[in-house]
Input
Amino acid sequence: MRIRRAGSLWIVASTAFLAAAPFFLSTYWILILTEILTMSLFAMSFNLLFGYTGLLSFGQAGIFGAGGYLAVLSLLHGPSSLWGAFAAALAGSALISLVIGWFCVRRDEIYFAILTLGFGMMLFTVAHNWRSLTGGSDGLGGFTLPPLDLFVWRGSLADPRHFYFLVLAVALIGAILLYRMVNSPFGLMLRSIRENTQRLSFVGADVRAVRLCAFVVAGTLAGIAGVLFAFFNRIASPEMLHWAFSGKAVLMTILGGSGVLLGPAVGAAIFFVLEHVITAYTTNWMVFLGAILIVLVLAFPRGVLGSLLDLVQRYRGRPRS
Output
């Protein structure tokens, strides 16, 4: 009970800090926090598959980028509506996830990973080569972000603080949705699939249907994160769909702690803060960043947050399930 209470206090304190950050941080660090929150949502969507369901996907970036493209295309060729762009990306990402997931969830382990990689690279190729629709390798830019209209308040998203609050709200909604899911009976089924798929199927559960549902939820959240990323950079580019971009989600999840809800968010924060601090001192930042990440992974085998939670549980004498 004390551990849960302490954890709740940390979450409340972190949320309060994030809500107050634009009022005392510089614009530079507001932009960094915006990027961290965007990638946190992307990594948490991946964690639903990898950490909770035991499915390693290398195709999350494909859906992530597709969401960004759908939102930008909606703004360029449809009504200039922020919520319309989000709706188009949400519906499109869910549909793409459903189609890809229907094929992928029929296989396990490395075969699942290869299938997701294949579908992801197909989406990347479409975005890269269909120049008339996607702009090819140049991507889609030159769009204007509609104002943030909350009916009782209207603000320009050109203001980094306004855009930050939008990203924070979307990331919090995504985190709450994932929290409710992983702490429900459905979440128990996901962990059962991760631990022993055959045993779950023996008791009558439709393993493929459960996997497909998790895949669609994860893909939809990844697509929404892609919208935020495209709006943040003011461009949707094919690099968003490349499998290497999926590697970022893998890295952040492992760094923060897979199977821990906020582990990927901690991993994203560590990764981006280290990157921006190191680049301020050297152009060979990748060498130093790689060395630090290796040390962190070796020192925290269950990720930074996962290992810290295990340490607290061990100190309290109550092993974490």
In short: The longest strand covers residues 148-149. The chain has 14 helices and two strands. The chain has a mean pLDDT of 89.
